[in-house]
Amino acid sequence: MKIELIVSGSCPFCLEAEKVWRAAAADHGFEFSVVDIVQPEGAALAQRLNLQTVPALLIGGKLRAVGVQSPEEALTLLLPARQEAHDRMQQMGFAFSRDNRWFILAAQAYLMLAGLGLLMNGSFLSDNAARPAFLHLFTLGFMLFMIYGLASHMLPRFTGNPIREGAWPWLQMGLAHCGVIGYVVGYLAGRHTLIVVGAVLTWLSLATFTFRVWPVLWPEEA
Predict the structure, then answer these.
(1) pTM beyond 0.70
(2) Which domains, ranges and CATH numbers included, belong to the chain?
(3) What's the pLDDT tens digit per position in 178-192?
(4) Closest Cα to residue 128, out of 120, 139, 172?
């Protein structure tokens, strides 16, 4: 949740309001910014909200108060926002979703395949043709899938913002599996085209993950 304080350089009370809200935001883990009303962003906000006086307080993009508040009044104004963030965390729960469980299970499978391949082919320390295939099983198979599963589960619980669900995680997973397979088969068979296809599919998987996680890190303002 973001706290914005609209101020003016000619306002004698704005500095006091900024001190109160900067401390309140830091104490309760909210993002805080000061917007000058003479700047384009501040002027646009003032026009949209029809502001007649400063300092003006926005919480989550909504006008909540004008004037200078005491620390106690600031806490009272923050209570609904804190409760909203808490409610969203409760709705998310703590159990892994089905797609995240499959990401982590796939990561374990790729880890075992990579380890067995490197040991059985003697390519752990050698530089034979199979080594890149099994290294990609470890990096793209194990590491990437583990990141997908844990990040999709944990980031929304840290920020309180939901991640895009529906068909998106399954598309992301399918692209990642095909990308890993393309890399491995391409290196084992010496087919450069398959390696390129694997790289493209892996990139598309990463792009899908970025699309899903974007509202978690940079949510739209209310």
Answers:
(1) no
(2) 2-91 (3.40.30.10), 94-217 (no CATH)
(3) 999 999 999 999 999
(4) 120
